Amino acid sequence: MSSYNKTVGPFSIRDxxxxxxxxxxxxxxxxxxxxxxxxxxxxxxxxFADAYNAxxxxxxxxxxxxxxxxxxxxxxxxxSAAAPDATANDAENVREFFxxxxxxxxxxxxxxxxxxxxxxxxxxxxxxxxSAAYTLxxxxxxxxxxxxxxxxxxxxxxxxxxxxxxxxxGYTPPADSYSPSTDRSIPVEAVTExxxxxxxxxxxxxxSSTFEFRNAASEPLPTVSTMSPxxxxxxxHEPPSAPAGSDTLFLEAATKTGLLAAIRDYAFHPPRCTIExxxxxxxxxxxxxxxxxxxxxxxxxxxxxxxxxxVRNITYAPIRGANAFMHWDEPERCxxxxxxxxxxxxx
Length: 347
Hints:
Elements: E1 4-8, E2 11-15, E3 27-32, E4 54-60, H1 72-82, H2 88-116, E5 123-128, H3 132-140, H4 142-146, E6 156-162, H5 191-199, H6 223-226, H7 229-233, H8 246-256, H9 259-268, E7 276-282, H10 288-306, E8 314-319, H11 326-329, H12 331-339
Parallel strand pairs: 3-4, 3-5, 5-6, 6-7, 7-8
Antiparallel strand pairs: 1-2, 2-4
């Protein structure tokens, strides 16, 4: 299936367009990519869209190719909020920054609804990896954005957090955890390669509370090892994940100030529960994903048991044998999981 590129607000998007099977009624899968890897890493989903009566829209976030970069003032705001001596004013600034960033995503979706006449109850909004923070922020700020206008609200089928890491939710990592990004034994010039090999490996975790932090299985190979240089260059964009990059600074600032924890809490416990939140992840992903999912499930279960607060309709769909790059290694299986109306654990 062919696709085309266009700009909506500050975002560069890639759109497969209306599927041929049922032009009046179809699923609209909107994907926000995660850290470092932009929308290009989801390109293998696109050829399957028409067969599944789906329209796929890939959004490149700001600071990624084709989309509007953050300006010097916005970078300075993030750097100040991430600094060790950050003030309460810095914390408030990063809260407003992320609320406005989320509003830009809302406005993009709203414009697509209007300009593309998207069907009601068709949008499945996917936040991949750390971009799960954006989708939870949309849920947390929804009432302020939606108001009484149901243009977007009536078109949303559900929100999906896809292979989210614990970082997207503001959780604290285990004391004995590991990441190549902080491994001083790795030469600086080799850190990026080590990180990408590490996050794209397949891991055999002992249980939902005991994780393999370092050593990927020998088979299958890490996804990055199977990609050609051209495929990597068409999907990878390193600057936002550099030490002073926008993604790195935002995650540091939003975790330190408690912003991500507050967003998570409000998204999980809304005044009204009208939109489903589904978590989909590969059970062989690097530890940051299953650890984050174990923390989410424990928190939600505790809230349900306590029975003192309203809890959103939250569903889970772990995918057996999949890593964090299922969308590249097994695109059709991934697409089925994202589109399934019920959380299908048999995939």
